[in-house]
Amino acid sequence: MRLLFLFFAAVLGGLAQTNTYLLRPARVFDGESMHDGWVVWVKGDRIEGAGRATGIDDPKTKVVELPGATLMPGLVEGHSHMLLHPYNETVWNDQVAREGLALRAARAVNHLRATLLAGFTTIRDLGTEGAGYADVELKQAVNEGIISGPRILASTRAIVATGSYGPKGFAPEWRIPQGAEEADGVDSLTRVVRDQIGRGADWVKLYGDYSAGSVAGAHPTFTLEEMKLAVEVAHSAGVPVAVHATTAEGMRRATLAGVDTIEHGDGGTPEVFKLMAEHHVALCPTLAAGDATSQYAGWKKGQQPEPARIAAKRSSFRAALAAGVTILSGSDVGVFAHGDNAREIELMTNYGMPAVDALKSATSVAGHVLRMEIGQVKAGQFADLIAVTGDPTKDISALRGVQFVMKGGVVIKQP
Ligand SMILES: [Zn+2]
Question: Most exposed: 66, 187, 322, 414, by fewest CB within 10 Å?
Answer without folding.
Answer: 187
